[in-house]
Request: fold
Amino acid sequence: MNCRSGCAACCTAPSISSPLPGLPKGKPAGMPCPCLDADLRCTLFGRPERPAVCGSLQPSEEMCGNSREQAMRWLTQLEIETGFDADASDWPKR
Reply:
């Protein structure tokens, strides 16, 4: 399966604990990655700065659904089920 153009749910819904350019402590869940361009494309794709977790997350029918909204719901639920607690972390303020 290929990524849906203009979606970027996988770059928004999940938290990323790896450092990113501009976010040395990672990215909190629900925050769009600052490495997305205006078309919601990853500006780090194929570059060594791209966190390994990003490259390991592959699009699938289950994850992506039929729309960005479905993908956001699925990924947000997965984030909740994995026990991430934004209130207990010291993420940068949004």
Q: What stands out?
A: Helices lie at 52-56, 61-64, 68-81.
